[in-house]
Specification:
By secondary structure, the chain is of the alpha/beta class. α2 runs parallel beside α3, α4 runs antiparallel to α7 and α8 packs across α9. The chain has a five-stranded parallel beta sheet, sandwiched between helices. It has two domains: about 130 residues, Response regulator (Rossmann fold); about 60 residues, Orthogonal Bundle (Arc Repressor Mutant, subunit A), CATH 1.10.10.10. About 50% of the residues lie in helices and about 15% in strands. The protein is built from ten helices and five strands.
Length: about 220
């Protein structure tokens, strides 16, 4: 089988207008082509079993199987395409967790089309992609201190729950958004507080404000 003459892209986002905007940004690029769209994590996995893609542009927050669970499922499929996280959440907070979970890169929905197409090409070629601002922040952290901030010790799932607690969501809201049971969320919450040495949600929120995760 001959290799395609363009990068095959699957756009996974629950909002049709976002998928349309991505396709519109890419259609003038001769080496890039949107060959599939999905509105949920389950649709992503279903399409991967039928078609081949080079890059998946994946939103973190989708109904049903959320972005993190979808990312884990994608990695079980061979050949696994490169996953570029496409999100409205702050890159500086989520990027490292997503890379640890197996993503090739992270790009914000607020970035210009040229950044998006450049990021797609980079991960399609086997490289990782992060914005210059996030790379500079990571270099500064390594240069200035050997100690990792406490929130960077959390797993990708733990950070999802940590962030939602920090912005004031209750266990039922978090459970619904992440497609988990409230009991599972409470269990994660207890583990997060213990790992970070906090006695309450209030301690966690104060920390999140102090380090700039929330305002």
């Amino acid at each position: 089988m001959t290799a395609p003459d363009h990068v095959r892209i699957l756009v996974a986002d629950s909002h049709p207008i976002v998928r349309l905007g991505v396709a519109d940004s890419i259609h003038t690029e001769p080496d890039l082509k949107v060959t599939g769209e999905a509105a949920s994590g389950d649709e992503v996995i279903s399409l991967l079993r039928k078609h081949q893609y080079d890059v998946i542009l994946l939103d973190i927050a989708m109904p049903g199987k959320n972005g993190l669970d979808t990312l884990h499922a994608i990695r079980q499929i061979e050949p696994a395409p490169a996953v570029l996280i496409f999100s409205e959440y702050p890159e500086s907070l989520y990027a490292i967790s997503m890379l640890r979970a197996g993503a090739k890169g992270f790009i914000s929905k607020s970035d210009p089309p040229a950044a998006l197409t450049g990021a797609i090409r980079r991960v399609a070629s086997g490289n990782h992609y992060l914005s210059d601002a996030t790379l500079n922040q990571l270099v500064s952290q390594v240069t200035l201190s050997s100690d990792r901030p406490m929130h960077e010790t959390l797993s990708a799932r733990e950070f999802q729950i940590f962030y939602r607690i920090a912005i004031g969501q209750d266990p039922m809201q978090i459970a619904k958004e992440l497609n988990l049971s409230a009991k599972t969320v409470s269990s994660y919450r207890s583990g997060i507080l213990q790992k970070m040495g906090f006695g309450s949600n209030a301690d966690l929120i104060r920390y999140a404000i102090r380090v700039g995760i929330v305002k």
